[in-house]
Amino acid sequence: MMRQYIEIKAANSDCLLFYRMGDFYELFFEDAVIASRALGITLTKRGKHQGEDIPMCGVPVHAADDYLQKLIALGHRVAVCEQMEDPAEAKKRGYKAVVQRDVIRLVTPGTITEEKLLDPSQANYLMALGRVKGGEDAMALAWLDISTGVFRVATTLPDRLLADIMRVDPRELIVAEPVYHDPALRPLFDTLGRMVNPQPPAFFDSASAPMRLARFYGVATLDGFGRFSRAELSAISGAVAYVEKTQVSERPPLGRPERDDETASLFIDPATRANLELTRTLSGEREGSLLKTIDRTVTGAGGRLLCERLMSPLTDPEAIAERLDSVSFFLNEAMLRDGLRELLKAAPDISRALSRIALNRGGPRDLGALAAGLEAARAVCDLLQGKELPAELSRAVRDLEVLPAHLANHLARALADELPLMKRDGGFVRPGYDSELDEMRSLRDESRRVIAAMERDLIEETGIRSLKIRHNNILGYYIEVTANNAGVLTNSDEAKARFIHRQTMANAMRFTTTELAGLETKIANAADRALSIELAVFDRLAAEVVAASEVLRDGAAALAVLDVSAALATLADSENYCRPVVDDSLDFHIEAGRHPVVEQALRRQLGEPFVANDCDLSPADGEKAGAIWLLTGPNMGGKSTFLRQNALIAIMAQMGSFVPARSARIGVVDRLFSRVGASDDLARGRSTFMVEMVETAAILNQAGERSLVILDEIGRGTATFDGLSIAWAAVEYLHEKNRCRALFATHFHEMTALSEKLSRLVNVTMRVKEFEGEVIFLHEVARGAADRSYGIQVARLAGLPPAVVERAREVLHLLEEGETGSKAARIVDDLPLFSAAMHRDPPMRKTSDRLREELSALNPDEMTPREALDALYRLKGLLLGN
Is 637 known to sit in a ligand binding site? Predict the structure, then answer.
């Protein structure tokens, strides 16, 4: 057995091997050590190998999904090795024969389909990077989700590779081994960490890709798929080859690869995605992200589509308007919207159930999910029938109308109301669907009643009231009559032919009949036969489902579109959002804009309203480029919130959502850049300031006139004059070279003088009020410039010791009077006594103790002026060490 294990493990060396032994999956050697640590299960040992104990651990087969979930979440890959024959068959080959085993699938983060392992509202993408040399498109990305059948491909460039990967947010990225070891790409792969999985270069061979794809899809030619570049074929081939490797003999119902036009979506670089917390917060949590805040979907497919739209906002005003039309329709039809959402709640995840059925991992509940989904789709069609629908919703309803009604009826007719999880449990076929199955179930469950009925029939036929049908382990079922009545069963040739003598007793005789023998065989095999019939019914239904996979996928996508449109309308209704105007201009005019996440958090946690603010970056009269707002103001005044909310409003508008504002007019943004917040990258030797400069460089090198740039506190990580100089030059560059719409927040108040030089630069500030020494933050944006940042007031609110706050006020006062540079020594000389005690060396602390004693001994009320002067000289002498 261990020889078999080692051979199978050698063929799957990059995976943890789940080796089936009876009711457990066992792991051995290093796999056992890793799994026991990761899963928190007991590490034991079994047998020896090369004189050493073999580590072992195991998990029950029935609970394997729970353990797989933990391992996959930690980035491990698992090879599932099953017993391919009954152990009884192995014994027939000899007592030393080993049960045949083989790997039936590889479970990896990008290829899971189990319901327990998947987030219903999150796609589970596997991505492949293809690269060819000398081609017109050097690099491409292909990504697919085997749990839903989605398959897309897009070209990319080295400078936007990471951004394109993060836009899709795959669970696993496969690359050819030579590409993985390319020094130019290693920093990127290091950033992605365990997500990256190197594979053999043969997987990515663009020359053999057409043959691989034709074989996978069962077609003779790829002419109907469209034309793909060599790099695209390389990426597509890599993805398909990896699916074939991991799924072994099963084939998921993947759609044909569709080209994803990278210019059709808003480019958002990785740093911006992280800073804006689109799908998860900086700490990695979904709670507090924009997606979690705006998600009102009621289906898993709808949640996935909403996430996809948020990650890839559109840049075509017509396509955006089409989505907004759908939201407007449901916003105006509140009763219809509520009815639709109730129907959608009853619609299970059709695409994921379909995938499990196609991969032979599905069960009766997956067929039930498809039946319920088809029923919900029919009800949705009836609900929307006769309505004047906008274009997007009209297409969705057409896709629902062509769903196969015969399949829905067949599933409803065949499946029971209560369905087991596993098909091997049986009991999922509805009574009355198959007459033979009903008979087998009757024999299995009601054998006594059937035998009793036969006994009654024989009594009436023969007239022998004492006739009994009995059973024992030797004869099985038999007919028993008293010796006196036996002649009735033997008095004619016809009776002798029918009643076959089995045994003679002292006072009775035993017989059987062909009918009774047949019934006995049926009863003995009824349970196995019933399950066999049910499994055959399952296979027929599964084949019928797989044959309709393409139209079922389209129907599932249509339900997702309806769910997202109705959900965004619900969001707009409950949060008082407005429909934005998105066009080809360079406008960016937001009236009474709000931060969607902060607004809901304030209301939920504090019951306070959010202070709305306007933002107008539209070109002024006579200008051909958008404006730059230079935002100054106090800490805690709301600058970062204001910056982020305008970026989020742009994203929401272009994804096709209403936005948190009184009104919004936005000229399409093609690239969004945001530099908000501080971070470092110590693993790559980058300080916080270095990361800031790298991200700022990316913005200045890539932003164009249609870009929206959000910059916060550029230059704060270095010396004051260095930082001011960098921030100053960056604003000038944005104004003169990039000519983009921008929000630039800073504490360098000197920069407000730039408004006199740069025609499109506008000074705005966060308003505050001072009352009885306290600072009140109004969180309002107004024209003008701040003259200070109120940092010391914020420090006091944060709980700094009062002595520190007071001393900071004194130092600030001296600095504001121009006491900088060489005169800074004067500030040090002016340190109060408590600071001297804290900062000087130990001998000086002894001096300060003597000073404190001398001061304590003085009584000013009893001293003459001469004595006071002498005491002062004496104290100064102590301070100077005299």
Answer: yes
Give the pLDDT mean for 221-242: 89
> Residues 702, 673: contact at Cβ < 8 Å?
yes
Specify which residues 510 forms β-bridges with: 480, 503
Among 54-58, 445-449, 621-625, 683-687, the range with the most confident prediction by mean pLDDT is: 54-58
Helix (H) and strand (E) counts for the chain?
Answer: 33, 27
Q: What pLDDT score was predicted for residue 820?
A: 47
Question: What is the pairing mode between strands 52-60 and 24-28?
Answer: antiparallel
DSSP string, 343-393: HHHT---HHHHHHHHHTT---HHHHHHHHHHHHHHHHHHHHHTT----HHH
* CATH T-level assignment (fold) for domain 576-592+605-788: Rossmann fold (3.40.50)
The pLDDT score that the predictor gives to residue 248 is 85
Would you say 640 is a known binding-site residue?
yes
Q: What is the pLDDT of residues 782-817, one digit of tens each?
A: 998 876 667 777 777 777 888 877 777 777 777 666
Give the domain 435-535 fold: MutS, DNA mismatch repair protein; Chain A, domain 3 (1.10.1420)
Cα–Cα distance for residue pair 153/614, rounded to 1 Å: 40
Output the CA–CA distances (angstroms, integers) from residue 421 to 70, 327, 408, 578, in the order listed: 22, 38, 20, 45
pLDDT tens for 70-100 read 898 888 899 999 888 777 676 766 666 788 8
Question: Tokens in use for 301?
Answer: 């497919």
> How far is the C-alpha of 739 from the C-alpha of 497, rounded, in Å?
106
β-pair partners for 137: none
Over the range 374-396, which residues count as b (16 or more CB within 10 Å of their CB) and which as e?
bbbbbbbeebbeeeebbebbeeb
**Which residue type occupies 747?**
H
Q: Is 201 assigned to a binding site?
A: no
Strand partners, 174: 128, 197
CATH architecture of 115-264: 2-Layer Sandwich (3.30)
Enumerate the domain spans of the chain: 2-107, 115-264, 295-404+548-574, 435-535, 576-592+605-788, 800-825, 833-879
Q: Strand 500-504 and strand 741-745: pairing?
A: unpaired
636 known ligand binder: yes
Class of domain 2-107: alpha beta
What pLDDT digit, counting tens, does each position of 261-298 carry?
Answer: 777 899 998 888 888 999 998 888 889 999 999 999 99
Pick from 496, 522, 567, 151: nearest CA to 327: 567
CA distance 417 to 411: 11
Spatial distance between the Cα atoms of 364 and 425, rounded to a whole number of angstroms: 10
The three-class DSSP label of residue 443 is: helix
Q: Where are the beta strands (DSSP E) in 183-288?
A: 196-199, 258-259, 267-268
Q: Is 639 annotated as a binding residue?
A: yes
pTM as predicted: 0.81
- Two structure tokens written together for 537: 């019914």
DSSP per residue, 447-487:
HHHHHHHHHHHHHHHH--TT-EEEEETTTEEEEEEEGGGGG
What residue has token string 């790099």? 231
Model confidence pLDDT, tens digit, residues 412-421: 999 999 998 8
